[in-house]
Design a protein that fits this description.
Elements: H1 6-28, E1 46-51, H2 54-64, E2 70-75, H3 82-92, E3 100-103, E4 109-114
Parallel strand pairs: 1-2
Antiparallel strand pairs: 2-4, 3-4
Helix pairs in contact: 2-3
Length: about 130
């Protein structure tokens, strides 16, 4: 068997150390081990709803969703007008997080946002 030169040994050792550091970094920088990881076994939830207008969304949110959920609202059978989307955003979406709206391939509208407590957005009457 051919003996490795000192230069080849240094290169092999350096490469091995480099690979070990990369593998360790995957464990060290794993986001699941972050400081805001919940130890109670619960995970962030999403709430998928569908309807033809704001009132359908409102009823479904009250029955199925809770504050902090990722709200995923989809219109039934076609696009929904902007008033219904705006009302849902204004009443239920957290403005500190991203709010996404758009059209799907089947021409239905969708809305994604983080759900907040509805009571904080009730209309104020003077």
């Amino acid at each position: 068997m051919k003996k490795l030169s000192d230069e080849q040994i240094k290169r092999n050792v350096s490469f091995t150390v480099f690979i070990i550091l990369i593998v360790l970094s995957f464990f060290i920088f794993n986001p699941a081990w972050g400081t805001n990881h919940k130890d109670d076994g619960s995970q962030e939830q999403y709430c998928w709803i569908s309807g033809e207008n704001f009132h359908d969304f409102k009823d479904a949110i009250k029955k199925q969703c809770k504050s902090g959920d990722l709200l995923w609202a989809v219109s039934k059978g076609g696009p929904i007008n902007s008033w219904n989307i705006e009302q849902t955003i204004g009443q239920y979406c957290d403005f500190k997080s991203e709010i996404i709206t758009g059209l799907r391939d089947d021409e239905s509208s969708y809305l994604q946002c983080i759900l907040i407590d509805e009571k904080s957005r009730k209309r104020r009457v003077k």
